[in-house]
Design a protein that fits this description.
Layout (H helix, E strand, L loop, with lengths): L1 E2 L21 E2 L6 H16 L4 E2 L9 E6 L4 H16 L3 E6 L5 H11 L4 H9 L1 H4 L14 H16 L4 E2 L1 E6 L2 E6 L6 H4 L6
Parallel strand pairs: 4-5
Antiparallel strand pairs: 1-6, 2-8, 3-5, 4-7, 7-8
């Protein structure tokens, strides 16, 4: 997993990432009403206020999982490789929120993916390029990038930091008990506990 660096006084996008090893972090089983309301708000913001895309073509009623990711994060790439089957079959609606915390390379790769003709296909190929030999994204001339897309990625990073999300991959999903989160790994029963967007 890739830890988000502690933001300096003046936020920079090329701050070094700090890699650490730890067990996956998930929300406490029964958070207080105030804490649950906060997690629910963050989940709502993920869908309504963040720049995101679906990693595949989900089936109707597929559970929705938001994944904050950095396209250059090795643990994020491994996670996508492990989820390739459910993504390809449409059994999960994995919604990608780019939050490149590894530095300029991750930011530029995110821009290149978001400016590609087929965002989902380019993303999946790039994320599995080290594990399956698919093609990584061709880096674009970032001086030609859409300013709104640049700002969207910056806003994603700032939102992640403001909500004290520890790094990537970071997951948000809704359940019958309210929104929940996981850091580093998804729960093994994610396809049965996460709810679809229409529920």
């Amino acid at each position: 997993m890739t830890q988000a660096p502690r933001p300096p006084d003046t936020a920079t996008l090329n701050a070094p990432a700090v890699a650490t090893l730890s067990a996956p972090i998930t929300a406490i089983e029964h958070p207080s009403a105030d804490v649950q309301a906060g997690i629910d708000t963050i989940f709502k913001q993920a869908g309504e206020e963040r720049i995101w895309f679906s990693a595949g073509t989900p089936n109707p009623g597929a559970p929705v999982v938001y994944m904050l990711t950095d396209p250059e994060c090795p643990h994020c790439q491994w996670t996508i490789d492990q989820m390739q089957g459910p993504i390809a079959s449409g059994s999960v609606d994995l919604r990608i929120i780019f939050a490149p915390v590894t530095g300029v390379q991750g930011f530029n790769t995110a821009l290149s993916i978001l400016h590609s003709k087929d965002i989902a296909q380019t993303f999946m190929a790039h994320m599995t390029s080290n594990t399956r030999g698919t093609s990584g994204v061709v880096q674009m001339d970032t001086t030609l990038a859409d300013k709104a897309v640049i700002q969207g990625i910056v806003d994603n990073i700032n939102w992640m930091r403001a909500n004290k999300m520890p790094g990537v991959p970071f997951f948000l999903f809704d359940t019958d008990q309210g929104a929940q989160f996981a850091f580093s790994e998804l729960p093994p029963d994610i396809l049965t506990v996460a709810k679809a967007a229409s529920q």
